[in-house]
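note to self: the first set is below, dont mix up w the second
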Amino acid sequence: MFTHTLSKLFNPEQTRAIIALSEASRQKQGGLVGGVREHNIRRADISWLDDRGDAGWVMDKIVDAVAIANRERFQFDITDFKERLQVAAYHQTDEGHYDWHSDIGDGPLARQRKLTIVAQLSDAASYDGGDLETSVGGSPRAADREEGSATLFASFVAHRVTPVTRGTRHSLTCWCHGPQFR
């Protein structure tokens, strides 16, 4: 009920274009809400894409897909997308991972997150480990690893990325905002 899969949101040519946009921008070590870096919790390189510039087409696809899925499945009060698109690279060489967490937090924007969408940018055969898992009711469930697919879930749902043991996993994350849950 709190997660939904969007098959083939992006085609392989589009996933490669998104990765190229990420690599052309400034990549840095990912942190937690507030910029704190805790390598035992999160180890990934991230970049932020200009969703009104070169990556505008990416945001257009996400907004359209989220609007349909939210109307049909979640029915949350979504008002906007206040944060830029985040691309993460989880590398085997530094045991890339992100431990269990939710996307609602103490930051001003994190309080308003309603839905999270994570798109799979890498070919699943190019890496091992690196599974996006969500947990509702204590039962972890691995997301679809098909290149271009996306998982949409309520931002309060616990999720993680398991350690990458071979290769590199790229993903795209976007948050949908609205009035705080009550």
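second set (the one i keep forgetting abt)
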Amino acid sequence: MKKLVAGLLMTGLLFVGLNVNAQTIVKGNLSALKGATGVNVVFTYNGLTVGKEGKEENYLKRKKQEKDSKEPGSGDKWIEQWNADKEKRYKPKFIQLLSKYTEWQLNEDTKEKYTMVVNTTFLEPGYYVGVSAGHARLNLEISIYEADNMNKALCRITMEDVKAGKGQFDTASRVSEAYAKAGKMIAKFIMKNSKK
């Protein structure tokens, strides 16, 4: 199990925290969220790499060829679903667990004082082939801003190797479980560190 390193840069102090499956490094100050009623959540995929393919475009190209070789024309439909899952499945799952473990009442249309930008930099979709299965894995960069000043982050958090969803048959279910785990982890981290 990897060590969670909570490096909170406040007045030159470094705090080291809990053991979990991912590493989290925080730069900035979470105290602004003390007493917050919630955050707006924005998902981005800037610089996303997927599995061993590197750039997301490489992964999509391979999957399109793979799908089209089995059923001509199905590759484009698969890519459309891949992109739709980001907004329809991954983001809601993250928000659901973030809400549950912060007790914030969040939804897709939340209008709050603070905005959390969740940028996925790496995504391993995992696999399921009956006798063998692999986790979905994520690396995330999370930045928290005042909603009316998106130029300067109050806090930056990186989460590495968040994994879940082993045994789930379809890709979207595996990846959704990884986002759920990330939502739970970041919620607990915020609740602990925003009180300092």
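remember for set 2: The longest strand covers residues 114-124.
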